[in-house]
Design a protein that fits this description.
Helix content is 86%, strand content 0%. The protein has a domain at 20-58. It is rod-shaped and about 75 Å long. With 59 residues, it is an all-alpha fold. The longest helix has 38 residues, at 21-58.
């Protein structure tokens, strides 16, 4: 079975229309926030670990 170009475009348009864009945007925003928060926590942990190592080296 071969689909022509018009049929494929119609299927894609109908699929896009069925997406709840408000929910998709909220999920995307939450994911982006989680990524940057995790990155901030990781940077903070590395910085804190470096401070602890420097404190031990001074002794």
């Amino acid at each position: 079975m071969s689909l022509d170009r018009v049929t494929v475009i119609t299927i894609v348009r109908e699929s896009i229309g069925m997406v709840d864009w408000s929910l998709a945007l909220r999920i995307f925003s939450f994911g982006l926030l989680a990524v940057f928060c995790s990155l901030g926590i990781l940077i903070g942990a590395i910085y804190g670990f470096g401070k602890v190592l420097k404190a031990f080296e001074k002794d």
